[in-house]
Every structure is written in C-alpha cells, then in structure tokens.
Amino acid sequence: MAEIPDDSAALLQLLSAPGSAVFFDFDGTLVDLAPTPDGVRLEAGVVDALMLLARWHGGALALVSGRPVAQIDAMLAPLILPVAGVHGVERRGADGTRHVAATPDVSSVLAHARALAAVYPGLLVEHKRGAVALHYRLAPELEQLCLQEMTLAVQACPGLLLLHGKMVLEAKPAATDKGGAIAAFMAEAPFKGRRPVFAGDDTTDEAGFAYVQQIGGQGVKVGSGPSAASLRLASPDVLRTVLLAASVSPFKE
C-alpha cells in the first residue's frame, strides 16, 4: 500500500490564514470511526480547539456531516457551531437560522432496509430526515448483499441517490450534497468572501472537495483512497494534532 502524503504543514497554514472559511466533516475526520454510529468518542481538547478556531475566523467555521444537526450539537456540547446535517438536508447558519430542504419519501427504502436487518442481526439501520443508512461494519461479509438490496430499493424511489461509504450504504436526496451545503454557507456572513478549506474522509465528502476547489479553496482528504482533494492527511489523529496545534498559536489569547 502506498504511503499517504502528510500535508499537515499546509493545513496548519490554511487554518492560520485570516481569510479562511473552515469546514470539517465529523465521522472519520474529527473523530475515529467506530463499530456503530453512537460509539464514536471525541478526544479531549477538540471542542476547545474548535471554539478557538471559530473565534479566530470570526465565526467562519462549520461542520458538514452526514449526521443530523441534533447529533452534532450533542457531541460538541456546550459548543454550538454552524452545522449542515444529513449531507445538507438540514442546515443551521451562523446567525442561527435553520434551513430544511424538501426530501423524497423514503418509507419504502426504510422498510426494505429494516426487513434485511431483521434477517441479519449484524446490520444496523439508521433513519434520518429524508435518508436511510444501512451499516454493515459488524457484518462486512454482507457488503454485496446490502449493495444489491439497497440499489433495488433506491431504484424504486425517485429522487434518491445511493452513496457507498465506509461500511455503509446511504440512500439520500439526490438534490442535496455537501458541496451545496458549503455553497450555501459561503453565500452568507461570516463565510462570504473567504477562501474555503474542507476536510473530510469519505465518498460523501467528494462533492465538498470539488466545490471548494472550484472556487479557489482547498480540499483535505483524511485517510486512504482516491479523491479529488488536493491535500492529504493519514488519519483523524493527524488532523486532530494539526487542530490542537492551531489552537495554541496564533489563536491563544
């Protein structure tokens, strides 16, 4: 396996640049992946570092995640940041305004996924606003079966797109993605007019990388695998190290 480049110094420089707008994915980026979505753990110091970084950039820092906004808020409490959840279906701007996109009816896909999980206990179904995720991390041998079944379910439900992430298949609205969520933030204060940097780890983040680089920003891919991102970090631990270093200088008061 080829060694993953380490662009830590470049990322630290981007985080330090006064004109940056900073966007982070959550799972696999700020936190390590876990066997189940509720099993992730936020390392000590990350919330404080995010708070200092957001302050340095005048509030131009947001999380862009596949998780619902409420879950991100619970993970970061007491810190409240601008957040896009469910790949942009839900979004809370820096001024607190909440936006919710129209979504297709996913009830048939949800029923299909739940029926499959009832037969194979290693599968986990996650129902979000307008989306259904089928996790097979606890049963990796079922990947092809899950892909086949979720593909059939999504094909029968207009307006949905199937994303194949890290040990998860997610049916989400085709009209929303992380690139669109970042674009919406970039049209608003305090993000407007800044240069965006977005760090993420999975296929769901590729739309975000493409958008920020299209407008002159930088995408940062965390981990291995093909990506459009121009910068690379080996792991969430490396990203956290950069984030904590950034919280010391020049942000420390």
UniProtKB/TrEMBL annotation:
Gene3D superfamilies xref list: HAD superfamily/HAD-like (3.40.50.1000), Trehalose-6-phosphate phosphatase related protein, domain 2 (3.30.70.1020)
Organism domain of life: Bacteria
Cofactor: Mg(2+)
Catalytic activity from the UniProt record: alpha,alpha-trehalose 6-phosphate + H2O = alpha,alpha-trehalose + phosphate
Pathway: Glycan biosynthesis; trehalose biosynthesis
GO function terms (MF aspect): trehalose-phosphatase activity
SUPFAM superfamilies: HAD-like
EC number(s) from the headed UniProt entry: 3.1.3.12
Keywords, in A-Z order: Hydrolase, Magnesium, Metal-binding
Residue ranges the record marks as coiled coil: none
Entry's family note: Belongs to the trehalose phosphatase family.
Summary of the function given for this chain in its UniProt record: Removes the phosphate from trehalose 6-phosphate to produce free trehalose.
Name of the protein described by the UniProt record: Trehalose 6-phosphate phosphatase
Organism from which the protein derives: Janthinobacterium aestuarii
